[in-house]
Amino acid sequence: MFKKFINSSYLALLNHPLGVIFYLCFWFFVAFFYDSYQTSIFLLLTLFIIFCETFTESKSNLIQNYKSLKNLWVGFFGLIFYIFLNFIFKDGIENYLIFFTNNSLYISLTTALIALVCARKLYDFNYFHHFLAAISFSISFWFIFGIFLAIFYGSFDFLFDISSSMLDSCVLSLWLCSAGIFSLFLLGNFTSCNFHKIFVFILNTFSILYIIMLFTYGLGALFNLLENLSIVHLCLWFGSFLLINLWINLSFYKIKKSLLYAFFIVVLSLNIFVFYAIIIRITQYGFTPERLAVLALNLWLLIANYLSVFKQKIALKFSFYLLALMALFLGFFANYISFSSQKYQLQKLENSIHSLNLDYIQSRQYYNQIKSIKNTLHNLNKNYNNNYSFDDFLKTYNLTHLKPQKIEFHNMSKKFHPKYSKLKENYDEVLFDFIAGSSDFKYFMKIDDNTLYFLLQEKELLKLENFDKILKNYQENSQLSYKLNNGSSLIFIPLEFNINIKGQITFFKTHIFIKNTK
């Protein structure tokens, strides 16, 4: 195995003479200058160099390979690409820190370059599962090396007492830098390694369990037994996971056509649901970069699903090229499309207001909608002015005559008889029939001007303003969950409350469940 690892690393030097140097330098930058703008740029440059070298032919001799004129051409194109990167990322470079960026263009370029490299190197299914297995092998050995390094350094520090923050940082940087060494063979011939069989077995076992988990959640959410998360994103993730699992098995097994057709129908059903849900969302609220990304990824999944079932010879390569194209499109045009769409939504909303006879509360609701769209426009284009007050709204639509409506309070008194259902987790402390204004040996709860305070030995753990609104909207048998200031969690199950004619809470009794931080 070690001999094959060395041989594959040597082949990486032959196939990517410049790419290997840039790849190792990139991991050096990650280890010692991870928060540098140039580290982020270096990632894109490294991927571009490796992509360019996939079009060149390597020689059998390493020295001749480095003397080849092809390196000058690759270096020349790399220099142009580096200048291009510094031009498009010349503003706000602090937002492009590697692994921590929210910049859509940077993420799109990275995704596109990775997809292009995969399209050139993983051109059929025989390479795909070998590649994933090799990545798992590389990561495993990297973590094992980290464990041994930590044990050795910890023991050395214990015996000789040499610890310092600088030395700790250097050891951590050494471990990060070693990732480049342990993954270098991925640029060579990783198909000679014979660990892919156990990898496919482990992956299929995991896939079956994962599919059962997702299917169980889907049933639970359908019958309101579990909390509803984003079903659109869940379906998209589920479909993508199934597709990658199909790719791995196509590279290892010969799958019957009936199973392939069943797979196609399942993923197609997920595609149709996602298209239906996201198009309704876009029709109502317009485009955003996130909705465009969901739409593009679902379109990619639809095409890749069709190719993987009916056009398997070109499926893998074409799918990666298509992913790269979509990522580039989103990177350069998603913000522009979203900005135009949101401006149209704003214009449509503003035009509709002129024909309405609004009262004060309705005016507030429409103002909040306009303000939300303006904030979205500002996030898409920082030059867009989102300073817009409620007074500006009233003046624009000649509604300055409207006055805040006086809220008439009525006495409200309610008692609850909760059914004792099992809580989601075990709690360390339970306070039954706890009344506001009373205390036990540790905790005290009071309500002042409709603000609830929960204290531990005079230390404030929880403050809930406008608690009267929470009680008015409370549904029997539901649980009010909160995070305390000390990291613990708390659940209220209200039993009784009273709000007087002035709208003030005069009485509140509840069960309290506290989960302490371990």
From TrEMBL:
- Membrane spanning segments where? 12-34, 40-56, 68-89, 95-119, 131-154, 166-187, 199-223, 229-248, 260-280, 292-308, 320-339
Q: Keyword annotations for this protein?
A: Membrane, Transmembrane, Transmembrane helix
Q: What is this protein called?
A: DUF4153 domain-containing protein
